[in-house]
Amino acid sequence: MDWFEQARAAEQGRDWDVAIALVSAHAECYSSDPEMHSNHLWHMDLLVRAERISELTERALTDVHARRRLNRSLGERGMEAVLRNRAEDGDRGALYVLVRLLCETSRVQEAQQAVQDIDPEDQ
Known about the structure:
By secondary structure, the chain is mainly α. It is 72% helix and 0% strand.
């Protein structure tokens, strides 16, 4: 069994440590090799599924894919306050996820207010 099959088996068995270790060894952000880049995105997804939010948050400081995956996960979990804090700290992606979350829950006025409070220049 090659590393990919081992990683898939570990993922299916929810053995996150093994899956993450195997995938991360074959992952590279912005690689010219599409498989390495794809594995990087898989790695970010595994971190979410393993609930390693602190690790993903640390990676998000320098990795745009980690930042996007983190924000999406926070939105999926309905973590408005965390998204708002990230947006207030300058994470534009977090602001967009927050606005989408508020709009999806029929709180358009709150979404408009969040944009006004955080980044009034953002159209």
